[in-house]
Design goal:
The structure holds 2 protein chains of 2 kinds. Chain A is an alpha+beta fold. Chain A has 12 helices and 13 strands. Chain B has one domain (9-124): 3-Layer(aba) Sandwich (Rossmann fold), CATH 3.40.50. The chains are: A alpha+beta, B alpha/beta. Chain A binds chain B through residues 300, 303-304, 307-316, 318-319, 322-323, 326, 333, 336-337, 340, 343-344, 347, 387-388, 390, 392, 531-532, and chain B through 15-16, 18-19, 21-23, 25-26, 28-30, 60-63, 85, 87-88, 108-110, 112.
């Protein structure tokens, strides 16, 4: 408890001491002044009454010392100014009256001060109690608000993750707690109150009931955690996939109190996983289909390319027979012709092998490959296709290109797609038909391969859409080529983009990252201009 | 006719080295002298048109095609009996070639007897 000066136990005010004694002098002086005024107007002499008032006033407000001073002063004033001629007994009697009065006033002032002190004490106690109460209430409100907020966050988290929480007592069989999300996941009406354990079981798919009952029973027996997947049949008949976890709570002596746990609706997650799996399969199929489509487009060209060595083989064999069946057979010439047959048959086989490796469907196999070699092989394969439309192929290859980690078949598929697109773009144009393939090292990080044509250029205002699935400008196109090419390049950690070429045509470029620590290979210069 | 056939030379125009080479060998085994050219342009600039008695040409080649070569020779009033050999032959192309005066239109690979007979017929004209 804190006491101010006002609450001192002894009588006396908080004023400075001079002011207290000053009050004594002033009050007696006032009593004297009033009495003189009464005498002046010939009114009855009342100094005694005024002096008593002055003494009482001083005691009340200024304390014991000044009160006694006021009593003494009053006595002196009365003796010498108002009754100078009275007897000594009379004077003493008056002085005694003042003294007794002063004594009584001392008691009165003390009682008053004690009372004041007690009131102050009680007030202080009450104030403090009140403050404490207010603080408690405030703290309570604060905790309540925090709790509400935390509960709201928790409920939101449960809603977002489709995870409900519950508590269940195996001994009584009662569900003790069932969060809002549990109602939603299990398909119960929140207005129905806490569900009974049997109700929970009734909402489980009949095929799953026996299995999960067994899992729970075994866990309870061993006081162990449990986890199971099950299906819920919602009131509307919808079947949802769920998963539940449970954890036993034991008291200090090891007795099972209850199980707490969660139920999670995993339907959407599972569907998304299935969806993703299907998408992956579809992409693989589509990539294969697109390769096959591209192969279909190429068939005519490949037939021609294989047909050339076969024609040479037939010619050679005919020549051989002619040398042997002459009137004078020439074995030397026949042998020469026969070796030509072998050479050309091998060439035909090589072409077939090249085609087979590209049309093969398989897992991605990454190894260090020389991008220039891949370009070379693609040109060999597509030379005839370009030839068919009088397109010349120009190569501008960086001879110091480092090897890259890549699936050569996939990268060739990208190259084939870009080259076939370029050829398609130039079929209808009348200006020079030139296809340029360029390889470059881009700083230290990657290498860039670009295919430039002098065709009709990118479709106006659709430069971005060309990479979208099913976007095509070709009458029989699937619209998947660039889409798949881009996903192949991106799966290698590179980029594929398109730009218009000046003055006409388009330029498609892609990058492949250079793995760190690969020694630079120095290949022979291969800047060439081939009119195929 | 502005082309006079002084010798009986067979010209072979095909951009594929192996086809061209084996064809020359085949003709040599049959006793016909021949010269090979890897493009229509090479043949036109060789100055051998005058002495060519029979032209065997591929149709689809980079640069000038076999049909264009035939048209060019016709325009120059230099009618050389021409045998077309092609891997891409369709009926329309065949009809166009024969209408322009081709003596034969053979899909690759071809029978040597038919080719030799056609060459012989062309040289005997």
């Amino acid at each position: 408890m804190v006491f101010s000066d006002k609450m001192r136990w002894t009588t006396g005010p908080a004023w400075p001491i001079g002011l207290c004694y000053g009050l004594a002098v002033v009050s007696v002086a006032a009593a004297l002044g009033l009495s003189l005024a009464f005498t002046h107007f010939h009114l009855p002499q009342p100094f005694g009454a005024f002096a008593l008032s002055a003494i009482a006033l001083t005691f009340w407000y200024a304390g014991t010392g000044p009160g006694i001073l006021a009593a003494v002063l009053s006595s002196l004033v009365r003796d010498y100014l108002f009754d100078p001629n009275t007897s000594t007994e009379s004077r003493l009697l008056f002085d005694l009256v003042f003294l007794v009065f002063a004594f009584l006033m001392t008691r009165v002032a003390r009682v008053r001060n004690q009372l004041e002190l007690r009131v102050a004490e009680r007030t202080a106690e009450l104030t403090e109690l009140n403050d404490n109460l207010k603080r408690e209430i405030f703290k309570h409100h604060q905790v309540e608000a925090e709790l509400r907020l935390s509960e709201a966050y928790l409920a939101e988290a449960q809603r977002l993750s489709h995870t409900g929480s519950w508590a269940w007592s195996p001994s009584s069989g009662d569900i003790r707690y069932w969060s809002e999300e549990c109602y939603r996941v299990q398909g119960f009406d929140p207005k129905g109150g806490l569900p009974r354990y049997e109700e929970f079981f009734q909402s489980v798919h009949p095929d799953d009931q026996a299995r999960i009952a067994e899992v729970i029973e075994r866990a309870v027996r061993g006081r162990e955690d449990f986890e199971f997947d099950y299906r819920i049949i919602h009131p509307g008949g919808e079947i949802r996939d769920s998963r539940s976890f449970g954890h036993p709570i034991l008291d200090p002596s090891g007795n099972l109190v209850e199980y707490v746990g969660t139920i999670i609706d995993v339907t959407d997650r599972r569907q998304a996983e299935n969806e993703r799996e299907r998408l992956r399969e579809a992409q693989t199929d589509l990539a294969h289909a697109s390769r096959l489509t591209a192969m279909g487009e190429l068939t005519a060209s490949l037939a021609h390319e294989v047909n050339q060595p076969i024609t040479a083989v037939v010619n050679g064999a005919s020549t051989c027979i002619r040398w042997l069946t002459r009137d004078d057979p020439d074995l030397g010439e026949a042998r020469e012709a026969a070796s030509g047959v072998i050479r050309n048959a091998k060439r035909a086989a090589e072409i077939i092998n090249r085609v087979r490796s590209i049309s093969k469907k398989g897992e991605s196999k990454r190894q260090l490959v020389d991008a220039n070699d891949l370009i070379g092989e693609m040109i060999a394969l597509l030379r005839n296709e370009a030839n068919r439309y009088s397109i010349s192929i120009r190569t501008d290859l960086d001879t110091e290109l480092p090897k890259v980690m890549a699936d050569s078949v996939q990268v060739q598929q990208v190259m084939m797609n870009l080259i076939m697109n370029s050829i398609d773009a130039m079929k209808e144009v009348n200006q020079t038909r030139e296809l340029a393939i360029r390889s470059r090292r881009e700083e230290d990080k990657c290498l860039m391969i670009s295919v430039t044509d002098s065709g009709m250029g990118l479709p106006a205002e659709q430069e971005k859409q060309i990479f979208d699935a099913f976007f095509t400008t070709k009458p029989h196109g699937l619209g998947m080529g660039l889409r798949i090419s881009r996903s192949i390049v991106e799966s290698h950690g590179g980029r594929l983009w398109a730009a218009n070429n000046s003055p006409h045509g388009a330029c498609f470029s892609f990058t492949l990252p250079i793995p760190s620590g690969v020694p630079e290979q120095r290949s022979k210069p291969s800047d060439a201009h081939t009119n195929v | 006719m502005s082309c006079k056939k002084e010798t009986k030379l067979v010209a072979i125009v095909d951009d594929d080295d192996s086809v061209r080479g084996t064809l020359q060998e085949l003709l040599r085994s049959a006793g016909f002298p021949s010269r090979g050219f890897d493009s229509a342009e090479a043949f036109l600039t060789s100055g051998n048109q005058q002495e060519t008695a029979c032209l065997i040409t591929d149709i689809r080649m980079p640069g000038m095609s076999g049909l264009e070569l035939q048209a060019r020779l016709n325009a120059e009033r230099c009618r050389i009996p021409t045998i077309f050999i092609t891997a891409h032959g369709d009926e329309e192309m065949r009809f166009q070639a024969l209408r322009a005066g081709a003596v034969e239109f053979l899909p690759k690979p071809f029978d040597d007897e038919i080719l030799i007979e056609s060459v012989r017929a062309a040289l005997d004209r």
